[in-house]
């Protein structure tokens, strides 16, 4: 029997389908890791994966775009991607950590061009409503995720947000922090965004719009530095802050937050 050498694996995150053409043995490992996000159907982007020997270089990825060619470089991968054709090549080290890092960077670039973004945030979905808790490391994303575990946590580290007409939709991702889950592919309309503040009692505080913009910008998962990318991001955040409820949530540690309290909105 003729042994397979290459395989096609398509992942769908936040409604964007990326097909990876890669050696069969690598496809098996990736399919297992991202099983909830594999899909069929016509992809939006196609990348051919090739072997790559690790080289010396910075841990921080370097992104650049010239004449619709997006280049993503790090010491363990190099991607050349044609944004016009939505086709590219990926030379990457054969380990799960390199691929997971690349996937985050790729989707951050694709989403910002599709009225969306990846955000450092925990998220929960219940009753077709999504609540997002943005924050940098140490802000309490995992703590709030554990406190809200019964409500359906979609990530304790990174969620995707996309604008769909006049509505913003929150998508789960396979990118997790301390809770180390593979996740499930879910989406729901955004109900409210809470910035976290540890407190002795439950409380909800309004925020001024300029503060909302600043705090959300700090939590944006984005590596591109070109002015156009920055403009896209700021335009998205401006729309988000003008249409979504963004507040501060005070909560005590190690206590379950009542769901009715979370979804209340003062008019």
How are the SSEs ordered, and which strands pair?
Elements: E1 6-13, E2 16-23, H1 24-33, E3 45-51, E4 62-66, E5 69-74, E6 77-82, E7 87-92, H2 96-112, E8 116-126, E9 129-134, H3 141-147, E10 153-155, E11 158-164, E12 167-171, E13 187-198, E14 203-206, H4 209-219, E15 220-221, H5 227-243, E16 246-251, H6 259-263
Parallel strand pairs: 2-3, 3-7, 9-13, 13-16
Antiparallel strand pairs: 1-2, 4-5, 5-6, 6-7, 8-9, 8-10, 8-11, 8-15, 11-12, 12-13, 14-16
What is the share of helical residues? Answer: 25-40%
**According to CATH, what is the class of the largest domain?**
Alpha Beta
SSE topology string? EEHEEEEEHEEHEEEEEHEHEH
Q: Output the CATH topology of the largest domain.
A: Rossmann fold
Which regions contain 5 or more consecutive residues with pLDDT less than 50?
none
Keywords:
Rossmann fold, P-loop_NTPase, 2 domains, five-stranded mixed β-barrel, 25% helix, seven-stranded mixed β-sheet, 267 residues, 6 helices, alpha+beta, single chain
């Amino acid at each position: 029997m003729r042994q397979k050498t290459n395989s096609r694996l398509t992942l769908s995150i936040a409604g964007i389908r990326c097909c990876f053409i890669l050696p069969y043995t690598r496809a098996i490992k990736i399919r297992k890791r991202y099983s909830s996000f594999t899909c069929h159907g016509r992809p939006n982007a196609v990348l051919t994966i090739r072997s790559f020997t690790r080289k010396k270089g910075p841990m921080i990825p370097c992104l650049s775009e010239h004449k619709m060619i997006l280049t993503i470089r790090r010491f363990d991968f190099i991607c050349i991607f044609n944004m016009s054709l939505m086709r590219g090549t990926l030379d990457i080290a054969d380990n799960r950590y390199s691929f997971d890092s690349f996937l985050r960077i790729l989707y951050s670039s694709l989403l910002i061009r599709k009225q969306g973004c990846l955000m450092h945030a925990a998220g929960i979905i219940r009753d077709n409503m999504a609540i997002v808790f943005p924050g940098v490391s140490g802000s309490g994303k995992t703590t709030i995720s554990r406190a809200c575990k019964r409500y359906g946590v979609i990530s304790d580290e990174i969620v995707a947000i996309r604008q769909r007409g006049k509505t913003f939709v929150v998508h789960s991702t396979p990118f997790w922090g301390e809770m180390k889950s593979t996740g499930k592919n879910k989406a729901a309309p955004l109900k409210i965004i809470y910035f976290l503040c540890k407190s002795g009692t439950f409380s909800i505080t309004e925020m001024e719009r300029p503060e909302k913009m600043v705090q959300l910008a700090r939590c944006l998962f984005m590596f591109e530095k070109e002015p156009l990318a920055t403009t896209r991001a700021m335009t998205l955040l401006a729309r988000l802050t003008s249409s979504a409820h963004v507040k501060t949530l005070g909560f005590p540690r190690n206590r379950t937050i009542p769901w009715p309290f979370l979804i209340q909105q003062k008019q």
